[in-house]
Design brief:
The chain has 10 helices and 11 strands. It is an alpha/beta fold. The strands form 2 sheets. The chain has a 6-stranded parallel beta sheet with strand order 8-7-6-10-9-11, covered by helices on one side. The chain has a 5-stranded mixed beta sheet with strand order 1-4-3-5-2.
Length: about 260
């Protein structure tokens, strides 16, 4: 097991900043589960790095995988966690369009999510996990949505990033206008989800945590708005929780 070089430490440390992730086409995942998921995927791995005190365990977790060793101090420099497990992997972007906003005018088969300005990385990661759990193959990220490769997003996704197709779009308006019959938008001013009837292949638009749907999306004539009824006194549901309820409804009630 070779030791990590100072040049690699400098490069990999810079990946904590979005600008450098995109400049180098590299990002980091941490922890046993995420690294195992990465190694089992078809994504190209640049390096697997283990802290010296856990390298023997890591060799058991990842048989046959080439591993680079780092001291405790070196690993702490690379890690975004306060109490890291001592294992991380550096991955190449899967393609040149990964995380690049693109013009999109048609929807895949669905079901899926369209995220309109989700800003909390934990919410984004959890929504990807929800999509993975319920077999939603597509998640479309609109303008203002947090970086997919934010460390907290990756951690919250629990490996879903390797199984769910995620696409950035530079604008949602033409996409939604062209596909209104296949879209429902989460909005407290809409119809009760209990009364909703659809194909089960719809895309659900989830708005910003604080503001809900953007004015641009909310004002689209004829867009179907749906809300989740509640009994208590909370003002609203968390965006990720809402995504789970919508996903369950589409997957199991809309047949």
């Amino acid at each position: 097991m070779q030791a990590i070089s100072k040049a690699k430490i400098k490069l990999f440390t810079s990946l904590s900043v979005k600008k450098y992730r995109h400049q180098h086409g590299l990002f980091i995942v941490e922890g046993k589960k995420m690294v195992q998921e990465a190694c089992q995927s078809n994504w190209k791995i640049a390096a697997v790095i283990a802290r010296e005190d856990v390298r023997e365990k890591v060799a058991e977790w990842l048989p046959g995988q080439e591993i680079v060793s780092a001291t405790e101090t070196e690993f702490a420099t690379l890690s975004a966690h306060q109490n890291p497990e001592g294992l991380l992997a550096v991955l190449h972007f899967p393609n040149e369009k990964f995380c690049v906003p693109l013009p999109i005018f048609s929807l895949p088969e669905g079901p899926g999510f369209i995220l309109d300005g989700i800003q909390d990385p934990g919410n984004l990661g959890t929504i990807l996990r929800v999509a993975d759990w319920f077999g939603f193959p597509e998640v479309i990220l609109g303008p203002g949505t947090v970086d997919l490769l934010n460390p907290k997003t990756l951690r919250s996704s629990m490996g879903a990033i390797f199984r769910v197709n995620v696409v950035y779009t530079e604008t949602l308006l033409p996409l939604i206008n062209a596909n209104k019959e296949r879209i429902i938008a989460a909005d407290l001013e809409g119809e009760n989800l209990q009364n909703f009837s659809g194909s089960g292949k719809e895309f659900v638009v989830i708005g910003n945590e604080a503001r809900g749907l953007s004015d641009e999306i909310s004002g689209i004539p004829g867009i179907r708005k749906v809300f989740i009824a509640g009994e208590g006194g909370a003002e609203s549901l968390n965006a990720a929780v809402s995504s789970g309820i919508f996903a369950w409804n589409l997957r199991y009630l809309q047949k």
